[in-house]
Amino acid sequence: MENTLKDPQTLPGWGIDANSENDPTYPMREPRLNVSQDPDNKHRPASLQPVDIEVLKTIERPNVSAVFGESSPPVGLSGMIRRFAFKYSESHYGHWLPLLLADRVNVVEGIVEDLAHGKVPNIFAEKGYAVEWKHNRSAFVTKMATIAVLTVGTVLLFTSGNKKSYKPKRRGYYR
Amino acid sequence: MLAMDYRGPKRVRATQKPMPEIKHPQDAIVRVTRSCICGSDLHLYNGNVPDTRVGMTFGHEFTGIVEEVGPDVTKIKVGDHVLVPFNVACGECHFCKQGMFGNCHESNTQASAVGGIFGYSHTAGGYNGGQAEYARVPYANVGPTVIPEGMDPDDAVLLTDVVPTGYQAAEMAGIQPGDTVVVFGAGPVGIMAARCCWLFGAGRVIIIDKEDYRLEFARNYANCEAYNFEKDMDDPVVFIKKATDFMGADCVIDAVGAEAAGNAMQTITGRKLLLQAGSTTALHWAINSVKKGGVVSIVGVYGPTDNLVPIGNVLNKGLTIRANQASVKRLLPRLIEHVQNGVINPKALITHRIPLEEVADGYRMFSAKLDSCIKPLIVFPSANI
């Protein structure tokens, strides 16, 4: 069924309570324009940055913006996950959750990339632990001890096999 | 060139990267002279903003000397020392025409909710930022502003974000003469917001944080009451109600955003498990401590996609919520005037000067609030300014 609407300005009472001073966006938006008031709302800059790398585009806009950043084009497994995420709109979990996952995968890819280039990442320095050691020693030691305990505990949990033979409990009523 | 390089949550380093190039006729390349680490950068640093990719350079508060310009750049020239607003804005789109330079429609391909921001993840356009020796600045006819003769570069670099964001926080609060304003968060933006509340005629300004050194700084810098929510009160909402004849504050500013402490459930779900887009503790306190019919102004950054926000209280109390990234370009003329007239003294916020080579230590220091750090400035030995 088609929507056939009357011109709203012909409806009785259209605009009789309009109040141009009731603009809660002032002064952040001045002059305030709605889309139909702006004769030029489809205007685009005269030049567009050439799209010579892969740029992922939100499905909530029709085109690539006139300029864009080129920091880190999507690559590898994280890139595949990001491409999947951009099939969904920004209001969808299918967009943001895969992006967060891709970010974590990307961290591992970064370490692999470092190693592939013969560089062992200095995680201690990258995390700025030297400055924490200098200014917040007790908290730093506590943090490191906690990480060590959790790490050792996890390793023991997964590596220690149960040496006792397993005896199934008798099922049935308690006697 | 040397640049900050993001490697993953809480892991950054300074590394050699290729020089930026002109990609668009309105681009400029600047040799960075000053660059700050911003509280908003900590959301990226902690891995809380989706689509923050390994290899990115952060930094949206910087000044620099123009080294190269594209063929269509007419407003600045090689050799100019410019401050670069954090917004990437075309100046021509539907939103820029209305002064909403923080919401430009032609600078972010990857998300429609926010305009482009330098060095702020691919969710904000994927631009490398200014924590590097050189940076590409798109739309150089719009954003970059020549630093006025005689202005200290340390003041200028804070005009790229901290001062406009603090000022707009106060502006959006709709302060009427005599109003009581509460500011949550005594970081650089919160302190600046508290200072700017007086410019709009506030009658009383209260700032709340959990770090005594920040509160002491705020007391001295912004001439406001300052309270520690861990030591001076059991419940910030009740504390503010009692301090305002049980009416609530006229206006409340959230200058904290997604890293808020103060509520275990919010911290676990929002900051540790990322089940919501950051902790909304400060926003809860803001909504619940403002008076009925009052205004909540939000400049603290919250990531996508969802948060636990007491929207029922917003309805029942008849609140107005105003929020945005600051539109630096719109505010600059007025703020430059304020700095030149001595009304605002931005550079007093800078407490640490960190060489780019030690950027990892700078992030750790700011993030962990070590050594009474209020605002760290990255300095470039090559800048000679």
Secondary-structure topology with pairs:
The complex is a heterodimer of chains A (175) and B (385).
Chain A: H1 76-85, H2 93-116, H3 123-126, H4 129-135, H5 137-159
Helix pairs in contact in A: 1-2, 4-5
Chain B: E1 2-8, E2 11-16, E3 28-36, H1 41-45, E4 62-69, E5 81-84, E6 87-88, E7 116-117, E8 134-137, E9 145-146, H2 153-158, H3 162-172, E10 180-184, H4 188-197, E11 204-209, H5 212-222, E12 225-228, H6 236-243, E13 249-254, H7 264-272, H8 281-289, E14 290-298, H9 311-317, E15 320-323, H10 328-340, E16 352-355, H11 359-367, E17 376-379
Parallel strand pairs in B: 10-11, 10-13, 11-12, 13-14, 14-15, 16-17
Antiparallel strand pairs in B: 1-2, 3-4, 3-8, 3-17, 4-5, 5-9, 6-7
Region (Disordered) (chain A): 1-47
Transmembrane segments (chain A): 144-161
Keywords (chain A): Membrane, Transmembrane, Transmembrane helix
Question: Please, could you describe this protein's structure?
Answer:
The complex is a heterodimer of chains A (175) and B (385). Chain A is an all-alpha fold and 175 residues long. Chain A is built from 5 helices and no strands. Chain A has helices at 76-85, 93-116, 123-126, 129-135, 137-159. In chain A, helix 4 crosses helix 5 (137-159). Chain A is elongated, with a radius of gyration of 30 Å. The two termini of chain B are 18 Å apart. Chain B contains 11 helices and 17 strands. Chain B is an alpha/beta fold. In chain B, helix 5 (212-222) links the parallel strand 11 (204-209) and strand 12. Chains A and B meet through helix 2, helix 3 and helix 4 of A and strand 2, helix 3 and helix 11 of B.
Give descriptors for this structure.
heterodimer; A: mainly alpha; B: 385 residues; alpha/beta; 11 helices; globular
Strand content of chain B: 15-25%
Kindly report the greatest chain-chain contact and the residue count on each side: A-B, 67 and 68 residues
Structural class of chain A: mainly alpha
Share in β-strands of chain A: under 5%
Name the helix and strand elements of chain B from N-terminus to C-terminus, one letter apiece. Answer: EEEHEEEEEEHHEHEHEHEHHEHEHEHE
Give the rounded overall mean pLDDT of chain B. Answer: 95
Number of helices of chain A: 5
Supply the number of helical segments of chain B: 11
Low-confidence parts of chain A, pLDDT < 50 over ≥5 residues? none
Termini separation of chain A: 74 Å
Largest sheet of chain B: 7 strands, mixed
Question: For this entry, what is the oligomeric state of its chains?
Answer: heterodimer
